[in-house]
Amino acid sequence: MQYFLGVDVGSISAKGVVIDDKYNLVADCYLRTLGRPIDAIKKVLADLKHNLSNSTRIDGVGTTGSARQLAGVMLNADVIKNEIIAHAIAACHFYKDVSTIIEIGGQDSKLIIIRDTIPVDFAMNTVCAAGTGSFLDHQAIRLGLPIEEFGTLALAAKTHVHIASRCTVFAESDMVHKTQLGIQRNDIIAGLCDAIVRNYLNVLAKGKEIKQRILFQGGVAANEGVRVAFENTLGTRIEVPKDFLVMGAIGAAILSCARANGDTKFLGFDQGVDQKFESRGFECNDCPNQCEIVEMLRNHDIVARYGSRCGKWE
Ligand code: SF4
Prior knowledge:
Layout: E1 3-9, E2 13-20, E3 25-32, H1 37-50, E4 58-64, H2 68-75, E5 79-80, H3 83-94, E6 100-104, E7 109-115, E8 118-125, H4 133-143, H5 150-155, H6 168-180, H7 185-204, E9 214-217, H8 224-234, H9 247-260, E10 278-283, E11 292-298, E12 301-306
Parallel strand pairs: 1-4, 4-5, 6-9
Antiparallel strand pairs: 1-2, 2-3, 6-7, 7-8, 10-11, 11-12
Helix pairs in contact: 3-9, 6-7, 7-8
Bound molecules: iron/sulfur cluster (SF4).
């Protein structure tokens, strides 16, 4: 039996999986990046190693996510691919007839259009936070609620209040205003789920044909309120895959299976991550986003950059 490692590192979360050569999930890990991607990658590897038998040998490694280059360097990955391809590969493996992937992560969102198992179009939003998981997290903290309860509370709403969806500032001030009017908390949360869906469709879906079969992946797919809001808005069924949190990592692992073919460059669970890295940062002023770009160095050589919302520096 062969085994393949996939690692998906974003600005909010880091995910890792090990699959076998039949693409069955053998081990998986999901944790917060907490602004320290190197530590997060090390923890993902340690967690996966802990859940594997000592005899498990890795035959291929793939990385994806906004810190895919960094993870690729640390692990000596055989394949480094963007999240669009990784999510599409995993979805098409488990659902041969998938036509649309809605993916909402911590800090970005994507719409992937697939026809006959080939990704033919996509849209990605890395600029507006209003339709992402970090905005939901922020609102949960502001309301003093665990984010895990958001979906249940939204589904318990008696009515859906309208919340502005154009940007986070308008949405938040609208929520405060509606709270001051005495509107029930559940109705506001349901309105927030609707607003996230409106924002997503306005920003990403213009001119795109969203048709069955539709999968909802990424961290926000855990929120049943958002899934139901998509169903109500689109008037069609939205499915959440069993391993929705780690679909990108599974896709990266599948890609490494094809690329490495058992002849991996992987340095091992310990050796690769024991190397010493330094980091430094700068601000990109080429547009109003003013992204904080982080550069990773190994032996004074730049080996990875991440943090740009447009991909310019990566
Ligand atoms: S990296 Fe620079 S150009 Fe790209 S979005 Fe950020 S600030 Fe704008």
